[in-house]
Please model this.
Amino acid sequence: MMSCFEPKSNVEMEPRLPEKTPVDRRNGKPVKANDIPPQGVYLPNNNILAPHMRSPEYVQMSNAAAITLGIMGGRMHRCDCTRCLNLLLTYPEGCRANCAYCGLARHREADRDYADRNFIRVDWPAVPMTDIVDIVAQDPGNSPFHRMCISMITHPRSEDDTFSVLKQWTDKIDPDAIPISILSNPTTMRREDVQKTKDLGADIFTVALDAATPEIFDKTRGKGVQSPHKWSKYWEIMMDARDIFGPQKFGAHIIVGMGETEYEVLNLVQELVDLGGHSHMFCFFPEEGSLMDHLPATPRDQWRRVQLARYLIDYRGVRVDQMSFDDLGRVKSYGISDAELADVIDAGIAFRTSGCPGKFQDDISACDRPYGDSPPSDIASYPFQPSRKDVRKIRRQLDIPVRVE
Ligand code: SF4
Model:
């Protein structure tokens, strides 16, 4: 059944405006002026001056990846390891964009050095790329990592350094043993750059679209916050990736809960599936220090409905036009029988972190991003298989009663 309603935007999700950065804090000036040479792993610490580190010699990696790689101590709540080695390019002058939900955004220069900023809830230590490659190259076939991913940022050197990091990796590690994803930043990219990542061994190319509509895109990462991104450029590069990488090998990241309706985001998910791609979902979390840190995290009922519906569209062949929505654009029915829906909910996979696949099965993401969009006390994306107790909680959040056998 097709829904018939006018999608409404949640006008309350308004970012703050960025403030002016003092001249002596701009472009990583303190780090460059002091020019302290880096020594091994740098753990983010806002109380000491960050050393002068830059890609391609240095990259940042998620805490989860650093623990799994064995270069940092610590444990993760209910997870032994992460299956994705997420790498992030790094420079003293940092990302030159100003996305409102992101802890790495340019306006934060005023507050802390780039290598000390938080990104998607967790710290990202900086590590020499050669150390990472040497550890993983010892036994790629038995590595805990099912995938490696290079995240680009907005920086004039982003493309060349992505190529260089990619080459350092593939010189020693067979990309068939550990496939590679690129999380791109289209603003500075050309079609030839997309092709080059493929030629250098990348398997999947995704675009961090993040916003579900052009209006929200503009407001959160375009001219609304003095940031250089354009919706049309992101789509242009995604279409290049579609041509170059082919079906199931491209997609978009989308943050749920920045003011779009459930119908709007699921319509986008359907559009991506119709093009042959995938969507990777994040639950909006008010990142400390970002321009949206005063706003509420996505309500769990909204997030669960979108997770469930997105899973059905992406992996079960259900179409958004088989679902129905209320006049606020919220999912009312999922387009399949109650019994089928109950099976999907109980399987729990729909509520795991979504992303590029690992080695278990197509609908289980290697990129599990432990606690990247919620605290462990109120999990949004499960970085592990939800238990029966977790599924009962999910059903309460969905307001779908537990099935009586
Ligand atoms: S381009 Fe990416 S890293 Fe840079 S501010 Fe935007 S979301 Fe953050």
Observations:
- The first strand starts at residue 58 and ends at 61.
- Confidence is low (pLDDT under 50) at residues 1-11.
- Residues 262 and 306 are 6 Å apart (CA to CA).
